[in-house]
Known about the structure:
The structure holds two protein chains of two kinds. Helices cover 30% and strands 34% of the residues of chain A. By secondary structure, chain A is an alpha+beta fold. In chain A, β3 and β4 form a beta hairpin. In chain B, α1 (10-22) runs parallel beside α10. By secondary structure, chain B is α/β, with parallel strands linked by helices. Chain B has two domains: 2-109 and 252-326, FAD/NAD(P)-binding domain; 113-248, FAD/NAD(P)-binding domain (3-Layer(bba) Sandwich), CATH 3.50.50. In chain B, a hairpin with a 5-residue loop joins β20 (327-332) and β21 (338-343). Chain B is 31% helix and 24% strand. Chain B has eleven helices and 21 strands. The interface between A and B is medium-sized, with 24 and 32 residues. Bound molecules: flavin-adenine dinucleotide. Flavin-adenine dinucleotide is lined by residues 6-12, 37-40, 46-47, 49-50, 80-81, 107-109, 127-128, 157-158, 161, 252, 254, 285-287, 294-297, 299, 329-330 of chain B.
Amino acid sequence: MAERRIIDARGSFCPGPLMELIAGMKMANVGEELEVLSSDKGSATDVPEWIKKVGHELLGTREENGVWHIVVKKAK
Amino acid sequence: MRILIIGGGMGGTILANNLARRLTTELKSGKARITMLSASDKHMYQPGLLYLAVGRITPDELYRDQASLLEPGIEFHVDPVTEFHLDKNEVLTRGGKTHAYDVLVIATGSRMVPESIPGLAENCETFYTEETALKMFKRLRAFEGGRVVITVGVPHKCPMAPLEITFMLHDYFKDRGILDKVKLHYTYPIGRTHSLENVAKWATPEFDRLGITYETLFNMKEVDGENKILKSEEGSEVPYDLLIAIPAHKGMEVIEKNGLGQNGWIPTHRHQLNMEGRTNVFVLGDTTNLPISKAGSTAHFEADTLGENIAAMVKMGTPVRDYDGKVFCFIEAGKDRATYAMFNYQNPPDPKAPTKAVHWFKMAYNKLYWVSARGLL
Ligand SMILES: Cc1cc2nc3c(=O)[nH]c(=O)nc-3n(C[C@H](O)[C@H](O)[C@H](O)COP(=O)(O)OP(=O)(O)OC[C@H]3O[C@@H](n4cnc5c(N)ncnc54)[C@H](O)[C@@H]3O)c2cc1C
C-alpha cells in the first residue's frame, strides 16, 4: 500500500484542519488515503460532514492524547 | 558564513534587514555575508491590492524600490533562481550565475492559480495582482446592478480577504447609491463563513444585517461562463452576473520543478522553520507547508524568529528560539470599521467587535509597512 499522506493540522486555527484537508485532497490522487491530525475536537464532526457532502470516503476517526486522527480516502 | 536569501518580498526583506542589524560587526569583518536574490527590483505592498480593487488607492502607492528598503551591507541582485542544488549548497539563476551558501533561506511567496478551475480565469474578476485588481475596479465602475457572487478557493493567501472584499463591495455599492440593485452572495469552503470560529460568529450576523446571503461548504468545481453559473464540488449551482473570486494558490513553479515541495509548498519544521531533512535550509512566509495563515504577518513573525536564530548561529553556532505559530491579522469590516485577530499554535484568537479606531490604525499601518519592511517596526 502506498504511504498515507499525513496532514499535520495540529494548532491550526486559521485556515484550520478542514481547509488543510481540502487543500491536501487537491494534491492527492484518487484512491489515496489521507490522515488529518487535528487538536480541534470540532474536526471530528466537520471533516466527516464535508467528506460525506462531497462524496469521499471516511475510513476512521480516533483520539489519542488530545489529537484527533481522521483517515479519509479520496474517492473522485 | 554566507547567508543567501531567495525572495525580496515581505519575509525575505524583513529577515535580511533584521540580520544586517544583528550582524553589523560580522558583515564588516567579513565573518558574515548576506546576499538576496529576487525576481523584481520593486517591492509590492500586496495588502494594498484590496483597496486598489475598490478604487481607494492608485497603483503607484503599492510600490517602493526594493534596493531602497535594504540595509547597507546586504548584497542585492535581481536575478531569479531557476535551480536549487541543495546537496551542493548552491543555486543557479536565470542570469546563469551560481551562488554558493552556508545557510539558505527560501521566501519566494505564493501565487493564485485561477486556471486550476475550468472556466474560472476567463469569467471571474479578482484582485490578487495589480493587473487583475485594476481590471476588477474598472468592471465595478461599469456595473449597474445584478447578482455579485464572491467565491473562495483553497488554499489562498490573506485569510481575511474574502470577508474584507465582501464588506468593502457592500460599502462601495452603497456609496454609489446602487445597493438596492445589487445582490451580494458569498460562498466559503468550510461549514461557516470564516475559518476562525470567532470571526465567523460576528461576520454571519453582520451578513444577515446587511442582507448579504451566503452558502458554506462550497468548493469551486467549474464555471459555466456561457450560462453564468458557478458549480461546486458539493453539487450546488450558483448563478451570477459578476463573479469575484479568490482563487486557490500554489507556491512558485520553481519550487515544485526543483522537487522542493508539491504544489510549491515546502515541508517545513513548525518551530525551527528549517526545510524538513535539511539543517541549513530555512523556509519563510507563504511557501511553507505550515498549517497557518499565508499572511504578511506570518512571514514577519517567522522572519523575527529566523533573524534571531541565524544571527545566533553565526555568533555562537546554535539557534536560540522556536517559532510559536504567531499570526496577527487586521480585518476590514467595511470602508470605515475594522477589527483584528491574533493567535498562535496554542491560543485561538478572540476578535472583538469592529471599531473605527482599528480601521484607522490599519490605514496608518498601510503607510507604516515600509518602516516594518525595513525591520524597524
Ligand atoms: C490582496 C491581498 C491582500 C493581502 N492582505 C494582507 C493583510 O491584510 N495582512 C497580511 O498580513 N497579509 C496580507 N496579504 C498577504 C501577504 O501579502 C503575503 O502573505 C506576504 O507577502 C507573504 O510574504 P512572502 O515573503 O512569503 O512572499 P512575497 O511577499 O510574495 O515575496 C515573494 C518574493 O519572492 C520573489 N521571487 C519569486 N520567485 C523567485 C525566484 N525564482 N527567485 C528569486 N526570487 C523570487 C518575488 O519577486 C518576491 O519578492 C495580502 C495579499 C494579497 C494578495
